Amino acid sequence: MASPNAEVDDQELMARLAKGEVSLLGELYLRYGKSVQRRLTCFVPAISLDETEDLCQEVFISAYRAAPRYKESGKLTSWLLAIAAKKARAFKRKSFLRRHLLGRYKDQRKVDTIAPEASVESQIGLRQQFEQAFFSLAPSYREVLLMSAVEEMSGEEIAESLGIRVGAVWTKLHRARRAMRAAMDADSVKGPKETE
User: Fold this and answer.
1) Residue 194 has pLDDT above 60, yes or no
2) pLDDT over 70 percentage in the chain
3) Residues 114-139: tens digit of each pLDDT
4) CATH of the domain spanning 111-186, picked from 2.60.120.10, 1.10.10.10, 3.40.50.620, 2.30.110.10
5) CA of 37: how far to CAs of 31, 44, 82, 89, 129, in Å?
6) Is domain 10-90 annotated with CATH 1.10.1740.10?
């Protein structure tokens, strides 16, 4: 059965979404949901079906919220796929966080409690301690730490991306790493206060 809004063109659809007609979100999904899901699986090949569906929903919710800023001159597919790319990058950061950063910390500190023969409880405990320490950092410290460790960006690339000086990047990285080490060593989760 055809959608009652199938005759509405993309520009009108976005204009009506911008005015708050949330019921049209379903029509937007019918038109572009498969394309967005394909793009998400291209960006994150190891993503599960459930995770793809969740991210896809996030893309369309973000599109609805951003509808007032949609430029009619642009192609709607490209606009949606740009949102999907942004969501995929955020997902990759989050999913690689444990494996990549925890792996680096383990190598640096010679932590033997995360070894394969360690108990599941001790591995979970260390991961939870790490996550708690990481998420206690100021958001800008977390951001530069992820850009450096996960995305392997240089200090200059991070500075350009964030619109700050290279010296500020190195300062944030140093403080973030120091706070992470202190939190992990002391079994505390007090991150540094951001000073800008």
Assistant:
1) no
2) 74
3) 445 556 676 677 777 777 888 788 88
4) 1.10.10.10
5) 12, 10, 13, 14, 34
6) yes
